[in-house]
Automatic annotation (TrEMBL):
Biological processes, Gene Ontology terms: cellular response to oxidative stress
Keywords: Oxidoreductase, Peroxidase
The protein's name: Glutathione peroxidase
Residue ranges constituting the Thioredoxin domain according to the UniProt record: 4-166
CDD domains: GSH_Peroxidase
Residue positions of the active site: C42
Family listed: Belongs to the glutathione peroxidase family.
Gene3D superfamilies reported for this sequence: Glutaredoxin (3.40.30.10)
Listed GO MF terms: peroxidase activity
Length: 167
């Protein structure tokens, strides 16, 4: 597995789509990205609705949300890949790209998340993801510009997304 270095960008990473296909994140170059660790049985799960609304509103302008299911917080994403995909589509109409379940913290954290947390640490410089629905906003050049906690609702990020889309 690749380890995170300062000279890297998010485009250097590959993740496995929910359908099981390897996807290079370079596929999303020149787009504004919101990368989110998700869960189906969390108090923040209704944020899927707000995420989908942002995606619907701005995807034609080059905005993409990348959802990464994670079961590291209270075992709130216990389902199989098929169950996760079905839940997201049926319950919230999710059409933005979803990926296979990953770890976002610890030794087995996905290399992308090691990079994100090192590049955009949280409060008091902590790198660890604290809970589900932590969000990373990435500009069109692949630079991580903001990190938002689970408490930040998708609609609260909209102005910054608009600014990055117009840049």
């Amino acid at each position: 597995m690749m380890t995170a270095t300062a000279s890297q960008s998010i485009y250097d990473f590959t993740a496995t789509s929910i359908e099981g296909k390897p996807i290079s994140l370079s596929t999303y170059q020149n787009n504004v990205l919101l990368i989110v660790n998700t869960a189906s049985a969390c108090g923040f799960t209704p944020q899927y609705k707000g995420l989908q609304a942002l995606y619907d509103k701005y995807t034609s302008q080059g905005f993409v949300i990348l959802g990464f299911p994670c079961n590291q917080f209270g075992q709130q994403e216990p389902g199989s890949t098929a169950e996760i995909q079905s839940f997201c589509e049926m319950r919230f109409g999710v059409t933005f790209p979803l990926f296979q379940k990953i770890d976002v913290n610890g030794q087995n954290a996905h290399p992308l998340y090691k990079y994100l947390t090192k590049t955009a640490p949280g409060i008091l410089g902590t790198e660890a993801i604290k809970w589900n629905f932590t969000k990373f906003l990435v500009d069109r050049t692949g630079k991580v510009v903001s990190r938002y906690s689970s408490l930040t609702k998708p609609e609260d990020i909209e102005k910054e997304i608009q600014t990055l889309l117009q840049a």
